[in-house]
Amino acid sequence: MADVKNFDSDCLFCKILKGDIPSTKVYEDELCYAFRDIAPQAPTHILVIPKEHIASAAELSAAENAALAAHILAVLPRIAAAEGLTGGWRIVSNVGPDAGQTVPHLHFHILGGQRLSDRMA
Ligand code: 5GP
Ligand code: ZN
Q1: Which DSSP helix (H) or strand (E) runs through 90?
Q2: Who contacts 46 (Cβ-Cβ below 8 Å, separation ≥6)?
Q3: Tens of pLDDT along 44-93?
Q4: Is 33 in the pocket of ligand 1 (CB under 6 A)?
Q5: In angstroms, what is the span from residue 46 Cα to ligand 2's centroid?
Q6: Which residue of 11, 25, 66, 106 is most buried, as measured by CB atoms within 10 A?
Q7: d(CA 100, CA 51)
Q8: How many angstroms is it from 61 CA to the middle of ligand 1?
Q9: Helix, strand, coil tally for the chain in percent (to 5)
Q10: Comparing C-alpha atoms, which of 53, 50, 47 is closest to residue 69?
Q11: Are 90 and 116 in contact (CB under 8 A)?
Q12: Are 99 and 120 in contact (CB under 8 A)?
């Protein structure tokens, strides 16, 4: 399916990008892919990932990834609007064990569809 830059055969989200693991697609373009989280923590819970294996936001560099990062940030509100999240929504990107990152492929959670917790941690 999708061309994945720096494809990692051990990475769950790289396998989803390849179509080896099924997912429910919400949005796709040449740089990123969005799909529904398998264990939603809000009525709307979407994951947005680059079509490039980058382990987390800690691996982003301005020199290498500025265009990709800006593109994904611009796509997030378009997905939220398409999902009808008129009351607001939250973006989360967990980095590393203290944040509970379980899949080491950069991803942005879009959470919404209800009043979200006042606390973020
Ligand atoms: P993290 O904890 O790394 O920030 O987020 C990983 C997310 O991936 C979790 O919310 C988890 O529910 C989701 N997830 C894990 N495995 C799968 C899968 O096979 N399919 C989908 N759609 N989501 C997954
Ligand atoms: Zn990956």
Answers
A1: strand 89-92
A2: 26, 34, 35, 36, 37, 79, 83, 109, 110
A3: 999 999 999 999 999 999 999 999 999 999 999 999 999 999 999 999 99
A4: no
A5: 17
A6: 106
A7: 22
A8: 24
A9: 30, 20, 50
A10: 50
A11: yes
A12: no
C-alpha distance from residue 73 to each of 31, 36, 48, 78 (Å)? 12, 18, 10, 10
Residue 30 CB partners (closer than 8 Å, separation 6+): 51
Distance 39 CA to ligand 2 centre (A): 19
- Give the span between the Cα atoms of 96 and 29, in whole angstroms: 27
What the block records as the tokens of 22 is: 């099924």
**Pairwise CA distance, residues 102 & 104, whole Å:** 6
Instruction: Quote the CA–CA distance of 101 and 108 in Å, as a whole number.
Output: 11
> What digits encode the pLDDT tens for the residues 74-84?
999 999 999 99
Catalytic residues: 107
Identify whether the C-beta of residue 28 lies closer than 8 Å to the C-beta of residue 82. Answer: no
Tokens of 33: 């892919």
10, 18, 33, 102: residue to mutate for ligand 1 pocket, most atoms within 8 A of CB: 102
